[in-house]
Design a protein that fits this description.
The complex is a heterodimer. Chain A has a single domain, classed as TIM Barrel (Alpha-Beta Barrel), CATH 3.20.20.70. The radius of gyration of chain A is 18 Å and the shape is globular. Helix content of chain A is about 30%, strand content about 20%. In chain A, helix 2 runs parallel beside helix 4, helix 4 runs parallel beside helix 5 and helix 5 crosses helix 6. By secondary structure, chain A is an alpha/beta fold. Chain A has 9 helices and 16 strands. Helix content of chain B is about 25%, strand content about 35%. By secondary structure, chain B is α/β, with parallel strands linked by helices. Classes of the chains: A alpha/beta, B alpha/beta. Chains A and B meet through strand 5, strand 6 and helix 8 of A and strand 14 of B.
Chain lengths: ~300, ~260
Amino acid sequence: MNNPDLSTGLGPIELKNPVLTASGTAGYGLELRPFFDIAELGGIVTKAVTPEPRVGNPPPRLWETSCGLLNSIGLENVGLAAFLKDILPLLQKINTRVIVNVAGRTEDEYLEVVRGLNGNEGIAGLEINISCPNVKQGGIAFGTDPVMAAALIKKVRAATDYPLIAKLPPNVTDIVIIAERVMEAGADVVSLINTLKGLAVDVNTRKPCLATITGGLSGPAIKPVALRMVHEVYQALKIPILGGGGIMTADDALEFIICGAGAVSVGTAIFRDPKAPLNIAQGIKSYLAKNNIGGIRNLIGSIDLS
Amino acid sequence: MLAEQAKILENRDRGAGVFLLKLGSPLVARQARVGQFVQLLISENYDPLLRRPFCFYNIDQDNGQIEVLYQVVGTGTELLSRKKAGEKLSVFGPLGRGFEIEPDLESAILIGGGIGWAALNKIHHKLALRDIHYVPFFGARDLGFYQAIGAGEVIPIPPGNIATDDGSYGYHGFITELVEAKINEEFHFSKPTIFACGPNPMLKAVQALAGKYDLKAQISLEARMACGFGVCLGCAVKKAHGEGYFKVCHDGPVFNADEVELSKI
C-alpha cells in the first residue's frame, strides 16, 4: 500500500490525518510555523481561551520528574477578545482544523467564551476544558463530578452549533461514567486525558517544587494510564475519542488509535522536539504502508483481545 | 531557530564540576548572537525528558563551532559531563533575546558571578576590544571555582576586580561591593552600562546598584524551562511594572534590570 489514507474523523469533525497538537503545548499553533508547515497536521487545539486575559500562576510553574513533567501554568492566555481579533484571523488562513479550547471558572464564563466564538469561520470545533488541575475554581471541579460535567456540557450544547469535544480529567474513579454523561448531554467527542494531578517536594527545603503545590503530570510517564482510559471508554461506549497523554512517537500514537482513538493529541513531546507532531504523522503513514493497511480508519479500535 | 545534530569536539573537565563543551554546529553558530542560548537534548530516552538550556560561552562563526560552559548540578548536566568527543548531540537554537551593545556606548561594567560567567565570556571579549571605558568584575565561591570557570583567561580581569565568598582569592566578600567602590572612584563623569549574570542574590544587588546610581543594566536570567521557544509558558518571571509575567526563554534571557522582579522567578 503505497499511499495509505490518513484521513479520519472525530464525530462530525473530518481530519486529513489523525495528529493534532494538545492544548497548552503549542500556543495557538502559529508558534510552530518556524519549524514546519502546520497545515501538514490533522489539526491544532489552541491553548485555553477564557473570557478575560489571564496572567497565569506564579513561578515555579514547572518541575521535571522521571519521564514526566509537572506543570502549573494556570491557563495563561490573551482572553477572548484578543483571540478573536489577533489570533483567529491568522488561524483562518491555515489549511488545517482549528479546535478552540474553552475554559472558565464558572458556567457563565464557559458560555461567554462559547457565545463569543459563535459565528466565526474557521473553527472546526470546541474542546471544553472541564479538567484543568491548576485552576482553583472551575476546571477540575466540573470534570470530576459527572452531574456538574453533564450540566455544563448541556448548557454549552444549547449555546452553540460547533462540534463539542469534552476534555475529561483522569483524576476520577470511573472515567466511563463521566464520558457517558457528557455524551448524553450533547458532546460529540471526548478528549482523553488531561494531566494527572501530581506533586513533587524539595527534600532540602521541604517545600513543594511548584508554587501552587500541586500540578498536572504529563509526558511518557502517564501514557499507560491514558491508554487504559481510552481503552475502557472505547470498549464500553464506542464513542469518538481524541486520545493523548505522553505520546512521543508514531508507535505511541498507534497504540492510542488501536485502543479506539479516532485521532491523537501530541503535547509534551513538542517541548523536546517542535517537529514531533509532524514526525508522528509521517511515522503513522509509514506504519500503514509497511503493514499494508489501507487507511487509519481500519485501525481505530482494532485491538486484538482474543 | 533550528535543530541540528552537532558533533561533540571536546567536553573538557575543568575541575570543581565545571566542564567546557565544544560543538561543531555550523547552522546554529551562523545565527547565534551574544547572550542567546541553546537547548541540548542530553538523553535519547526519556529521563531526563526535557532538553537543557545553556547560553553561548563562545561563538565561532568562521569555524562553525559553539561552546558551552556548564556546571554539573543535576541529572542532566551529570549525563552531559560523561559525553565524549565524537558523539552527536541535538542542538536547538539559537534561542531568546541576547545582550544589546548600544553603538554609542561609552563605558561599561561587567559583573559575573560563578557559572554565570558562561553568559558573559563572549560579551567580555567584545567589550574589551572596544575603545570604551570598560571594567570587568568576577566573583566566585572560592579560588578553585574561580580557576575552573576561567573568567578572564583570554582577556584578563584585573586581580583587584575579583572576589571570593571565602576570601581564598581576591576580595573577601560580595563582588557588588567591589563594583560600588569602583563606581564611586572611577565613574564620576560617565554612566556605565552594566552587563551581568550570576546567582539571583547577586542580580538583585545589581538591580539595587543600577537603581541607586541611575545606571542601565542588562541582566541574563536562568530559569527552569521546558520548550525554550515560548509555547510552554513555564519559565515565568514577574514583570516589575504592570501585571503578569515575562518568559525567560522568549522575552529574555537578557532583560533590562528594571523590567523584572527577581523575587518572583
